[in-house]
Write a structure and sequence with these properties.
- The complex is a heterodimer of chains A (396) and B (603).
- Chain A is of the alpha/beta class and 396 residues long.
- Chain A is built from 16 helices and 15 strands.
- In chain A, the strands form 3 sheets. A 9-stranded mixed beta sheet of chain A has the order 7-8-6-5-4-3-2-1-9, sandwiched between helices. Chain A has a 3-stranded antiparallel beta sheet with strand order 10-11-12, with no helix packed on it.
- In chain A, a hairpin with a 2-residue loop joins β14 and β15.
- In chain A, α6 runs parallel beside α8.
- The longest helix of chain A is centred in the first third of the chain and has 20 residues.
- The two termini of chain A are 38 Å apart.
- With 603 residues, chain B is an alpha+beta fold.
- Chain B is built from 13 helices and 33 strands.
- In chain B, a hairpin with a 2-residue loop joins β11 and β12.
- Classes of the chains: A alpha/beta (396), B alpha+beta (603).
Chain lengths: 396, 603
């Protein structure tokens, strides 16, 4: 039976963080409720058209899904249970943020089948948390985390952000050690990206430009610090038993995130909710990004006679074979296992090394990539210079 | 229908930049109903997008207007618009040759400026009657009476009855029109004499060939006539004659002495038409050509290369087309190790260079790499010969050089007295030699300096504006060549000399320029997987060095909830940046880097 992964977007949070450019904002309960209703209708309607596929993973992300009221959360989770029918085989993750969790919410999640939590911690340093505009302290995280364990969650991810303004290697490693001391099964470390339109952009964009040129920065860690932090981070996690399986993701044996990996392996997924991305049958879709419009499109009087691919979307791109090749490379290379050369040949009918001859030569020659066990993959240095490597695989 | 010569007025409008020349032209056209409202677009005569955007006139344009004067008679006005910038003096000169009079527009708040003077002198050189108009009287700071007096004192032309107008709001435009009738002389010339017509502009049309703009001095030009261009010797049969509507060509039966118009003759070869040439009747030629006007030589040179080397032929065609109505643009093929095949092009000044560059990019959709502009140096060799050096790469070995000369200009700078000190300092820094200073009025001075041209071609104008808070105006003309202590500064990137980055510099400034150039390039060149030394050298000796550090970390790790398209867009943007690079050895150099020398003085 064919499978599908499902992503569900909850675009609400208690307070927008200063670095955040995801589709997310605070909203009153009434609006949240209207949104959840529309989201459920979208789920019923769209999954109905994919019924022959078994749901392999579910990922409820945001925003902060755990910031939904008890009532809205139950409504959403029970609908997910009824429509998508997850079982104990299904990897079912919900994102949550410290400061929005309660025992009853955790129990609700557990009851409806959520079996993995992804906690947005970002830092274990209270000053850094304040700087990021987070609503919680390190202590609150610890409380929430232990509560989740008590409620029976045995698969937990912690998100951290590196390269924070003013953060040196030691400061980051302190956060990391404290987080690892909690023994999560999985940890993600993303370096801070200063995105346009955020408060951080106004504050630090000049610094980003300086760093790109290899110059001294005022607030952000310079490139050397970033590099050295990266080395310390991966060595420490390795010694602590966490395997790097993707550029930013580390897990204990058997605890890799199937859903996350599915994105890089280009598995099909159905994205539900505001601005959510889908990838089904070689076509990429993006949902409506305006919440009023989104609710209208998914109103209770929508006549449902369109095939899935013809429903209203904000963006829709059918991939050509060339685009599929590009993606196979720049997504596949994010994983430590890299791109399997036989799979490539089977899928496209040509050898990867023929299509990307000069690129693979150059990367291998410069020590950014290697070919081992029939796979083309990046080395540690290749991961450090990921942008450079990925960009090479786009066609002109 | 025969047109009464006494009812024709051929004139142009001259002004300092920003004094409102194009706006007045618009008002005149509007008042005389030449255009319907729908056709009326601000600054009708500034045809090119570029002109509208920058608010300057680059090319001459002409339009015929019918005006019913208060004396009850109908007059034909041929208004020929002229550029205002110092770089385009040659264009002004061309337009003036087609006119009998000129309207001088002076800003009521700014008064007489350096270019006002320069343009008036040009007009007087062409024996034109100059009729002053005081514009912008609607401004709170307008001082029309003082400005009228200034015109009389400084320029020496009667200005007490000069119309006080606002071209913007339309005040007193009628008076301008009446004075055109009264003060601009009607053309002279005999329509029955042998044809003698001056080519004052031309443009290329894909369907009709070259369209030639002429002022008929004597005789008559008709379709079907066989004509001869006296300088090139080309003979053609006239296909169509006509005059200028606003933005349109309107055919008519004939153009007779005193008239301004155009003709076409299926001329495909651009080189047959030369602006300034005299057109005559093959069957009944005139005895001698008109004086034309002096040919101007380019003062600034730079290399222009197609970003995509496959576009070399397109670039050559584009330059050829631009040269039709811009005789001062010169080009010849050259080759660079770093940039491949391109052209060494000559311009009248830096603005001219920028305009050509932008026109090539916009009108011909070419992506260009331009090297740093330089002037023409005279190199006297030990064997007694002299070469005119337009490309620094061609500088002979120092052992073969006896001495070098560089071009010097006489510059006139008009500035309010508060900034005299600042401007004198600036001129000093640019190796200027003080000549004189006179106060035109209590608060304004006219400074005269001799300056090396290579010190002013880059950013002198900007520096002048910023140090005088915008109050200084500037004009210059070539004075001659003077001996100077010059060296060639070479740039090495990753130990390889980049020919396109070499430039000639005053010896004493070499160290400073070299240092800044290295700093600039360090900012422009993206980091690579390896370290890249950037060095400046004079005669093989390294005088400055910077290093582009190797790239250690560059990741884009964030996952936007499976939004792969967004990720790809970021990678594409990064790649787009790479496309604008030139691969030299194993280093990728952004195209902008080749213009770095221009920005050396920016902080």
């Amino acid at each position: 039976m064919e499978t599908i992964m499902v992503y569900i977007h909850v675009p609400f949070c208690v307070k927008k963080c200063l670095y955040c450019d995801f589709l997310s904002a605070p909203a009153d309960e009434k609006s949240q409720s209207l949104y959840v209703d529309a989201l459920i209708r979208e789920m019923e309607r769209k999954y109905n058209k994919l019924k022959d596929r078994r749901v392999k993973t579910i990922f409820i992300g945001g925003g902060t899904p755990s910031s939904l009221s008890e009532e809205n959360l139950s409504k959403l989770l029970s609908a997910v249970r009824d429509v998508l029918k997850p079982d104990c085989e299904t990897e079912y993750t919900m994102e949550c943020n410290p400061g929005t969790l309660s025992e009853s919410k955790l129990k609700t999640a557990k009851k409806y089948g959520v079996n993995r939590l992804s906690i947005g911690l970002q830092s274990m340093d209270n000053d850094e948390l304040k700087l990021l505009g987070r609503i919680h302290s390190a202590e609150e995280f610890e409380e929430n985390y232990l509560l989740a364990r008590e409620c029976g969650f045995d698969n937990i991810n912690i998100d951290l952000i590196s390269s924070l303004p003013g953060q040196n290697k030691e400061a980051f490693m302190n956060s990391l050690r404290k987080a690892i001391a909690m023994s999560p099964e999985h940890i993600s470390v993303y370096s801070l990206i200063v995105e346009e339109g955020t408060e951080f952009y106004d504050r630090y964009h000049d610094d980003v430009l300086k760093r790109d040129r290899g110059e001294k920065t005022l607030f952000l860690p310079d490139e050397d610090t970033e590099y050295e932090t990266g080395v310390a981070l991966r060595e420490y996690l390795k010694s602590a038993g966490y395997n790097r399986y993707e550029i930013s993701n580390y897990a204990l044996d058997g605890r890799e995130c199937t859903h996350n990996k599915g994105y890089w392996q280009r598995k099909d997924y159905l994205g539900l909710g505001l601005g959510a991305a889908s990838f089904i049958d070689k076509t990429r879709y993006k949902n409506e990004v305006n919440i009023k419009e989104y609710i209208k499109i998914n109103g209770d009087n929508v006549i449902d006679n369109l095939p899935l691919c013809d429903e209203p979307y904000f963006e829709k791109t059918e991939l050509s074979a060339m685009e599929e090749m590009e993606e196979t490379m720049f997504l596949g290379l994010r994983m430590t296992e890299g791109v399997n050369l036989l799979d490539f040949k089977e899928k496209f009918g040509v050898d990867m090394k023929n299509v990307y001859h000069s690129q693979t030569e150059e990367l291998v020659m410069n020590g950014l990539a290697e070919i081992e066990d029939g796979c083309f993959r990046l080395t540690d240095r290749g991961f450090d210079l990921g942008n450079y490597a990925f960009g090479m695989f786009l066609f002109d | 229908m025969s047109i009464d010569q006494s009812k024709i007025r051929n004139f142009c409008i001259i002004a300092h930049i920003d004094h409102g020349k194009s706006t007045l032209a618009d008002r005149i056209i509007e008042k005389t109903g030449t255009l319907t409202d729908r056709e009326m677009q601000s600054q009708v005569l500034d045809n090119m997008d570029l002109e509208r955007e920058r608010g300057i006139t680059i090319k001459s344009q002409a339009v015929r207007i019918i005006y019913k004067a208060k004396d009850g008679e109908e007059y034909i006005f041929n208004l020929i618009d002229t550029p205002g910038h110092v770089d385009f003096n040659y264009e002004v000169s061309r337009s003036l040759a087609a006119c009998d009079g000129a309207i001088l527009v002076v800003d009521a708040a700014q008064g007489v400026e350096a270019q006002t003077l320069a343009n008036v002198y040009l007009a007087l050189d062409h024996d034109l009657d100059v009729m002053p108009v005081i514009n912008k009287i609607d401004l709170p700071s307008a001082m029309p009476d003082e400005v009228a007096k200034e015109i009389e004192d400084v320029i020496g032309i009667e200005a007490s009855d000069a119309p006080r107008i606002s071209a913007k709001t339309g005040i007193n435009i009628d008076e301008v029109l009446e004075q055109i009738v009264a003060k601009i002389p009607a053309p002279v010339g005999d329509k029955n004499k042998p044809l003698q017509a001056l080519i004052f502009d031309a443009l290329y049309d894909a369907y009709r060939g070259v369209i030639v703009f002429v002022r008929i001095k004597e005789g008559t030009l008709k379709a079907g006539m066989r004509i001869k261009m006296m300088a090139t010797g080309a003979e053609e049969e006239v296909v169509e004659v006509g005059y200028f509507g606003a933005g349109r060509f309107i055919p008519c039966d004939e153009l007779s002495a005193g008239m301004v118009g155009y003709f076409t003759a299926s001329i495909k070869e651009v080189s047959k038409t030369r602006v300034g040439d005299t057109v005559t009747d093959t069957a009944r030629p005139c005895d001698k050509p008109l004086p034309g006007y002096k040919k101007v030589n380019p003062m600034v040179y730079c290399g222009i290369y197609p970003a995509d080397s496959a576009k070399y032929g397109d670039l050559r065609d584009a330059l050829e087309k631009l040269q039709i109505n811009d005789a001062s643009l010169q080009y010849e093929p050259e080759t660079s190790l770093a940039l491949g095949f391109g052209f060494r092009c000559g311009f009248l000044g830096l603005l001219h260079l920028e305009i050509i560059q932008e026109r090539l990019e916009r009108e011909f959709a070419l992506d260009l790499v331009t090297t740093a502009p330089g002037v023409v140096y005279h190199i006297y060799k030990t064997d007694g010969t002299m070469i005119e050096l337009t490309n620094p790469s061609n500088l002979p070995d120092p052992s073969e050089i006896d001495y070098m000369e560089e071009p010097i200009v006489s510059a006139e700078i008009m500035v309010t007295s508060d900034f005299v000190g600042a401007i004198m300092t600036l001129c000093q820094e640019r190796r200027g030699v003080y000549k004189s200073m006179e106060y035109i009025e209590e608060t304004r001075a006219l400074l005269k300096y001799d300056l090396p041209l290579n010190e002013i071609i880059y950013d002198f104008f900007d520096a002048l504006k910023s140090r005088s808070r915008g109050y200084a105006s500037f004009d210059y003309e070539l004075k001659g060549y003077e001996k100077s202590d010059l060296v060639k500064l070479d740039i090495l990137i990753n130990r390889e000399q980049i020919d396109a980055l070499s430039f000639i510099v005053f010896k004493e400034s070499a160290y400073e320029r070299g240092r800044r150039m290295c700093e600039r390039l360090k900012e422009e060149i993206p980091r690579h997987l390896f370290e890249i030394p950037i060095q400046a050298a004079v005669g093989g000796k390294i005088i400055a060095r910077e290093t582009v550090r190797a790239m250690r970390k560059d990741v884009l790790a964030k996952c936007y909830g499976g939004d792969i398209s967004r990720k790809k867009k970021l990678l594409e943007k990064q790649k787009e940046g790479k496309k604008r690079m030139r691969q030299v050895g194993n280093v990728e150099i952004p195209q902008e880097a080749f213009m770095s020398v221009l920005k050396l003085d920016e902080e």
